[in-house]
Amino acid sequence: MAKKLFIKTHGCQMNVYDSARMADVLAPLGYAKTETPDDADMVIINTCHIREKAAEKVFSELGHWRIRKHAAQARGGDVTIAVAGCVAQAEGAELINRAPFVDLVVGSQAYHQLPELLARAERARVKGTGGRGILATDFPVDSKFDHLPDEISTAPGPVGYLAIQEGCDKFCTFCVVPYTRGAEYSRPAQAVIAEADRLVATGVTEIALLGQNVNAWHGEGLDGGAWSLGRLLRVLNDRFAKTHPQLRWRYTTSHPREMDDDLIAAHGEVAGLMPFLHLPIQAGSDAVLKAMNRGHRAEDYLRIVEKLRAARPDIALSGDFITGFPGESDTDFEQTLELVRAARYAAGYSFKYSARPGTPGSLLARQVPDAVSSERLYALQALLQEQSAAFNRACEGRVLDVLFDRPGKLPGQLIGRSQYLQAIYVSDPSLRIGDFLPVTITGGYANSLAGEIARREAA
Ligand code: SAH
Ligand code: SF4
Ligand code: F3S
């Protein structure tokens, strides 16, 4: 009988991708995914370590799973508990100590080994050592990508994620990612294309190319040389342009330092590339950027924005920001607001600085008081909301291409994403998930838009 696998995913889109791949790895063992935790024979909590709050969630969630496991054991069964992702990678040993009922802790580069690890966990349990869970958090010498199955066990739906790059060598002083994901690795173009073929065969309409530093991709090209992301995008677009003219592409997350002219030009030339780019800067003051080890100045960033708009005038930009990085003064923060005003974002994500264990930032003097970071966060959020509301309001009356991928809260309502990645709500009894339709925008607000299906003539 099929065993039921429940996966809870936290964190970024890379974790969403990893969760899907873990399901692929376990499918040949007879595990089928379930959306109901109560049915689960096995749970994987795929964790995020980026900020303190994200990391804390793991332990409270594990508390619930411990109760489920003990209840199942009382009935003569069991629930296998695995912790994966970035908390597993960063705090695996502590996890096993604090939560001895966890069967398996598997890091971000080791999950292709899940079948062997599960077998080991099973043996440990049979032996009745009362022993500890299995810890697998090494960074193996060869890439997990060479060992993942080709088969996609569950169709992803309208949007497919495709990891083309992983890890990070940038070492921003606030960030755990270089430690939780390891060194930068680019998959060869051949492997990326093969996976794109498989995703397209499942019926996706959008493919998001993923990497912690996706625009640093420099994988082996089809000709044996190193390619750039601009080149890869052109090849992918051309491959499907005739057979799947609706297919659209985006990539995330990009670092300003890797935004080369060829990639910028691709935004004007690659028809299937969405007019959207998530390009975090984190702060607008050069002193703070330097302390963060970002490796560029505010004006370099604004120059890139200018070039992107020259290449693709309607491009929508989003960014990430951190308030209260150690040493950030009022004047520094004012420069973040100035940069936001100059860049004009369609969407922005701002976070209060969270000192992460093991990062250089956590050791810096002049940590900013929490109340000050919060106050700055609210001011920044207000400005970003104003900008997204303005961007969305300017879309009223326009017809946007919306890919519907989620149910809305109201009956008959679905939520989709436009080419600018805005969330669009439409109520229409004929709508189905996966529909990709022209939608006339009737209302634009800070976080969403309302619309109705455009009549054919209008499209
Ligand atoms: N690879 C991406 C970022 C991944 S983390 C990049 O290079 O931009 C996503 C976002 O979380 C970051 O852009 C940053 O804004 C935020 N973040 C990361 N570490 C943080 C920390 N210690 N405190 C607060 N926010 C943080
Ligand atoms: Fe973290 Fe910086 Fe690497 Fe992004 S570029 S993942 S913020 S270290
Ligand atoms: Fe979180 Fe790891 Fe992604 S720390 S943001 S899940 S790379």
Bound molecules: S-adenosyl-L-homocysteine, iron/sulfur cluster, FE3-S4 cluster
Helix content, binned percent = 25-40%
Q: Main sheet: which strands, in order across?
A: 2-1-3-4-5-6
Shape summary? globular
The largest sheet, given as strand count, sense and whether it forms a barrel, is: 6 strands, parallel
Number of domains: 3
The termini sit apart by 49 Å
Query: What is the average of the pLDDT values?
Result: 95
Protein model, in words:
The protein has 459 residues and is of the alpha/beta class. It folds into three domains: 3-136, Methylthiotransferase, N-terminal domain (Rossmann fold, 3-Layer(aba) Sandwich), CATH 3.40.50; 146-394, pyruvate-formate lyase- activating enzyme (Alpha-Beta Horseshoe), CATH 3.80.30; 399-453, Beta Barrel (OB fold (Dihydrolipoamide Acetyltransferase, E2P)). It is built from twelve helices and 19 strands. It has a six-stranded parallel sheet with strand order 2-1-3-4-5-6, with helices on both faces. Helix 7 (229-241) packs parallel to helix 8 and helix 8 runs parallel beside helix 10. The termini are far apart. The relative contact order is 0.08. The mean pLDDT is 95. The structure holds S-adenosyl-L-homocysteine, iron/sulfur cluster (SF4) and FE3-S4 cluster. S-adenosyl-L-homocysteine (SAH) is lined by residues 50-51, 174-175, 177, 212-213, 253, 255, 280, 282, 320, 322, 351, 353-354, 356.
